[in-house]
């Protein structure tokens, strides 16, 4: 059984009835309920299609945060062979919110990193819900420097509500660490490709997403601040997060129109968690095609392409 979001309740009710009938059928408590099961399944499928054809930005925010959505761990397991993780920033400690290392992507060596939110209470606490501290971004810089030294492309997977805002993180130079990570991304002489797989929140996201190519999953979000944070600042009322989500233009569709991202990776009806293997495979194909565009390009050409990409954002708005 899937876990359902609040707006998916009509589908949850229908699929719950299907499960009840299937259970009764297996236990021999019902006689010939096959037709009723098929009718309810068709009705649930239609209801889901209708819901996902009319999603609001707040609905997409909820989907992007779905606990069953595939996280960094699944993308690495599905796309990267012989993954070797690297730990620590060589200055303070290791931040498990940012996972990084090297491996083979479709037979070619690459550097990989991203935010890991965790899947249960224990892992979420260990990974700090994907909210990195300064040492996480300093580890990211270390990986980027190694990737450039060994002439390897970099793949990043973004999924964070934002950088960790705690006192300790600020004392250790959170803003400086994010700025240096963003700068390292923009200065790389090897190609880098980023995918927003869930939430792309604030500087915590752009610090590893200032790349040659930026992709987003269809129901991911990418914004300068979380909807709750924006609502707290603009209206002093975090309960107006839904209004903030609508006004901030945080969806993949809006950001594609603005030129902030390059391509939208389609998700199945119901979200990526309903068919994670297919979404991960499609993401891998998109990354492979993007990296192929930079074959034969010099370091200066790669840097120029990235620079031109960011300078072009917003230039075509009417």
Characterization of the model:
It contains 14 helices and 8 strands. With 318 residues, it is of the alpha/beta class. The protein has 2 domains: 6-54; 61-311, 2-enoyl-CoA Hydratase, Chain A, domain 1 (Alpha-Beta Complex), CATH 3.90.226. Strands 1, 2, 3, 4, 5, 6, 7 and 8 form an 8-stranded mixed β-sheet that branches.
Layout of helices and strands:
Blueprint: H1 9-26, H2 34-52, H3 57-64, H4 72-79, E1 80-86, E2 98-105, E3 108-115, H5 121-126, H6 134-149, E4 154-160, H7 167-171, H8 174-187, E5 192-201, H9 202-206, E6 213-217, E7 221-223, H10 227-234, H11 241-248, H12 252-258, E8 263-265, H13 276-292, H14 299-311
Parallel strand pairs: 3-4, 4-5, 5-6, 5-7, 6-8
Antiparallel strand pairs: 1-2, 2-3
Helix pairs in contact: 1-2, 4-13, 6-8, 10-11
CATH class wording of the largest domain: Alpha Beta
Helix content: 40-55%
Shape designation: globular
Q: State the domain count.
A: 2
What is the level-2 CATH architecture name of the largest domain? Alpha-Beta Complex
Query: What class would the helix/strand composition place it in?
Result: alpha/beta
Q: Radius of gyration, rounded? A: 21 Å
In a few lines, what is going on in this structure?
Helix content is 48%, strand content 16%. It has 318 residues and is of the alpha/beta class.
């Amino acid at each position: 059984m899937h876990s359902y979001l609040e707006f998916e309740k009509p589908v949850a009710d229908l699929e719950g009835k299907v499960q009840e009938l299937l259970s009764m059928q297996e236990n021999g408590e019902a006689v010939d309920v096959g037709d009723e099961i098929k009718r309810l399944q068709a009705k649930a499928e239609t209801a889901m299609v209708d819901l996902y054809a009319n999603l609001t930005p707040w609905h997409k925010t909820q989907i992007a945060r779905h606990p069953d959505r595939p996280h960094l761990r699944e993308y690495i397991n599905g796309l990267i062979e012989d993954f070797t993780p690297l730990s620590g920033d060589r200055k303070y400690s290791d931040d498990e919110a940012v996972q990084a290392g090297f491996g083979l992507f479709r037979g070619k060596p690459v550097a990989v990193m991203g935010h890991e939110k965790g899947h249960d209470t224990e892992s979420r606490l260990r990974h700090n819900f994907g909210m990195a501290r300064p040492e996480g971004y300093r580890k990211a810089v270390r990986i980027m420097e190694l990737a450039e030294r060994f002439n390897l492309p970099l793949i990043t997977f973004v999924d964070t509500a934002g950088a960790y805002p705690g006192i300790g993180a600020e004392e250790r130079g959170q803003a400086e660490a994010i700025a240096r990570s963003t700068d390292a991304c923009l200065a790389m002489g090897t190609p880098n490709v980023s995918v927003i797989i869930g939430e792309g929140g604030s500087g915590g996201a752009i610090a590893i997403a200032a790349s040659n190519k930026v992709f987003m999953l269809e129901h991911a979000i990418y914004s300068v601040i979380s909807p709750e944070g924006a609502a707290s600042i603009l209206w002093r009322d975090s309960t107006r997060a839904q209004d903030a989500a609508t006004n901030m233009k945080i969806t993949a569709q809006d950001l594609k129109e603005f030129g902030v991202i390059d391509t939208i990776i389609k998700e199945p009806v119901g979200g990526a968690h309903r068919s994670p293997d297919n979404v991960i495979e499609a993401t891998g194909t998109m990354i492979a095609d993007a990296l192929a565009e930079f074959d034969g390009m010099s370091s200066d050409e790669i840097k120029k392409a990235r620079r031109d990409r960011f300078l072009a954002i917003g230039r075509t708005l009417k």
